[in-house]
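hiii, so i know i said id send this last week but things got crazy w the move. better late than never?? heres the sequnce for the chain we talked about at the cafe, plus the structure i predicted for it. fair warning i was half asleep when i ran it
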Amino acid sequence: MEQDPTVLTVLLQKLLQNVSFTQLLALADPTSFLAMLSSPVPPIQLLGLFLLHKAAASPGDVAIVATWNEVCKELVNTTLCANDTAVHKEANRVLLAFLLADLPPSASGDGTTTERSGGSGLFWRRIFSDRDIYQMILHICSWSGSPDSFSKKTRAQSRLLGLIPSLAEMDWNTIIAHTFPGLVQKYTIGTTKANNLLDFATYGMARLENDVMMGMLHLEYLSELLAATSSDKALAYLSQPQVGKHQEAIGLFLHPRIFTKDDMVAGLLESRAGKYCSAYARLYPAHLVNATSASLILPKDVKDQFPDFSDTEYSNVCTKFSSEETRLVDLFLTHIAQALDTCRNPKTAYEPPVTCLHLLTSLPPDVLVSPPTFSVDSGVISRQEYEKWRSSNSVIALIPLTPPLPEYISTLGALFSSSQYLYSIYTILLYNQAAGLATPLVASPDTTPSMPVALTLWAKILSIAKAPALADACLASISLIQAVTDTSSWDGVLVILRQMQLMEFILRPTERHTARRVADPESTEFRTAVLKYEIVQSLAKAMRKAGGDSEGNVRKAEGVNEEKAELAKKWGKTIMQRARMGPWDTEQQPVVGTMEE
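okay and structure toks below
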C-alpha cells in the first residue's frame, strides 16, 4: 500500500462521490489539498484533484478556492509540469472547469454558453492578475526561465499551447491584456517583444528552429486558436504584421521547401499547415475569397526561425505573386490540382493527398465550380468551348474512383452533399470520359444529369459498395450514397430514386454468412447493414414528405415535382416495409456473440 496507494485512493473517491465541496471543508483544509497536489505519488495527486474538482459545481465554491493562493499556484504548476500524463489531464480539466464556473458575465469570449457565465471572476484574477502565478507560468515555459531539460521545457510549452485556445474561447481580453508587460518581455525570446500571454505563447516562447515536433505542435495550436472564437479576433491577431503566423502557415502549406530543404520535415509541416488552411477556409470563407497573394509576405522574425529558409526562392515567389496579384483561393486550388495530378502517377496512385482533400472539402463550393459561358441548351458545343469549361472545373475532375480509395470517395461525398452543381459536373465529366462522345455534354447549374448519364457514376459507386473485401472503400461508398440522400442543399433523394440497381441494393436486407450467425459490430458486413438501413430511414422520411403514409401509399404533396411523385409511388411501399424490418430481415436478426458461447 505504501508503494502503490491506488486501491485506497480509488476507494476513497467512491466513498466521497456524493459529498459536496462544502462538506469536504469540514474534513480537509487548504493545507491538505496542497499536500495532495504536490505529492510525488500520482494516485495521491489524482485524489486531491478529484476532491478539488467538486468546487467547480458552484461559482461560490470556486471563489473559496481562489482565496487559497498556494493551492491555485500548485494547480497551475501541476497542469504545466506533471510528469504523469493522467495527472496533467486531470489538473487541466479542473483548471478549465474552475475558469468556466467563475466566468463573469462581462467576459469577452465568443464560444462559451452564457448560462454558465455567472461567476465573480475572482479565480480569473487569481490566475492571471497575481504576479507570482503569472511569473511562474512564464518562468516554467520560457527558455529564458528555469533551466529545465529540453523535454520538460517543451512539454510545459506544449501544455500551455493546448490551454490558450480554451482561454481564448472563454475570455479573449484576458489573454491579450497587458497585465505585466515588463515580465512578459523579460521572458520573451526573439527580437519582437511580447506584451501579453497570447503574444508569449504565439511567438515569444518556443524555439521552432531544428525542432520539428514543436513546429508541428505550434501549427496545431494555430488551428485551434483560429477556431476558438466565432468572430475574427484570432484571425485578425494572427494576421498582424508583427505576428505573421497566418502568413507563415499559408506559406508552409503552399511552399514548404522555402522553409526547409529536408523533404520529410517539409511534408510533416505542410500537413499541419494544411490543417490550419482548412480551418481558415471553413471558418472564414468570405475573408479567403477576398484575400490575395499578399498573404504570403512574411515578417522577418518568422523567417529567422527557419535556419534553411531560402531567401532566393521566397523572393522569386513574392515577385511573381506581387506582379500577378493572384487570389489566395486560386493558389489553394492550383496546389490541390498539382497534388491530385501527381497522384495519377502509378507509383503514387495509392498515396492520396489527404491534406489537400481536407482543404478541398473546406473551401466554399462556389469557388470550386465555373458555370459555362455559353448556352448549355444551344445544342451544339464546340470542342474548344468544352475544353475551356472542363479546364475551369479541373480540380474536381482530377478526383479518381480508380483505384477505389476511401479518401477520394469520402471527398466526393462531402462535395456532392454541399453542391448540386459539383455533383452534376463530376457526373458529366465521368460520363464524357467513358462515352467518348464527339459532342460532349456540359453540366447545367440548374438541373441534375439524367438517369442514363448518371448511371456511369452510380455503377462505379455500386460496384465498390458491393465489395466488402475493400472494407474502408466499401463503407465510404455507402456513406457517399447516404450523403447525397441526406443533403439539405439540393434534392439528392430524387437522384437516388432514379437508379434502379442502386435502390435494389439499398433495399435488399443484408445476408448473414458468418458462422453461427454471430454479428461482429466492427465487421464490414455489420457496418454496411447499419449504413444501408440509415439510408432506408432517410428515404422513408422523404416518402412521408412527398405525401406518403406509414404503408407507403403516396399522394402527391404540394411542392413535389411530378418525377419525384411518380418515383415515390413506385418505391414508397417497399421503402416503408423495409424501414419497419430493421437492418436485417425478421428471420436474420444478428446474434451478438459472447465469450461464454
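btw The chain has a mean pLDDT of 86. thought thatd interest u
miss u guys!!
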